[in-house]
Design brief:
Blueprint lengths: L5 H14 L9 H8 L3 H13 L3 E4 L5 E4 L8 H9 L24 H17 L2 H12 L2
Antiparallel strand pairs: 1-2
Helix pairs in contact: 1-3, 1-4, 1-6, 2-3
Length: 142
């Protein structure tokens, strides 16, 4: 079941910061950790997942770091969620192929859960990192 917890929060904070780098400046895990007081080891794991998910690129070496793999307008919230958390659903009882674990006993709320799930998927597929970054700027008045 999807929960917006710290790993998603830290992933989005890092991605918004990377999206601000107009010249594709690399950001190290240490710098991001220090700047936003995120535990370094946890952030390093999250950045690794984002890299493995194709959301960011990593360059090794003393001047290495991370940057976005694509423009912020081409990165969808769904891609970030899948990279960090896997293919999570709103409700554990409803699978991706619309099978309900409670079908045998006559679940009475499956249609409601399916509507909620469909709208959630539509929402996270429609939101880009660019939009998240713009929201952050508006919220902080920058």
């Amino acid at each position: 079941m999807f929960r917006f917890n710290r790993d998603m929060e830290y992933a989005l904070i890092s991605l918004v910061e990377m999206s601000r780098q107009v010249d594709e400046t690399l950001l190290s895990a240490r710098e991001l950790s220090r700047r936003y007081t995120i535990p370094y080891k946890l952030l390093a794991l999250i950045l690794q997942k984002l890299r493995e998910g194709g959301v960011i690129l990593a360059e090794m070496g003393p001047r290495g770091g991370y940057r976005l793999a694509r423009k912020p307008s081409a990165i969808r919230l769904k891609q970030v969620i899948e990279a960090v958390r896997g293919n999570e659903r709103i409700a554990d009882c409803l699978t991706a192929d619309r099978h309900c674990a409670q079908d045998e006993c006559g679940c009475t709320i499956k249609p409601l859960i399916q509507i909620f799930q469909d709208r959630w998927i539509s929402f996270v597929e429609s939101i880009t990192l660019e939009e998240v970054s713009v929201l952050e700027v508006r919220a902080n008045g920058k």
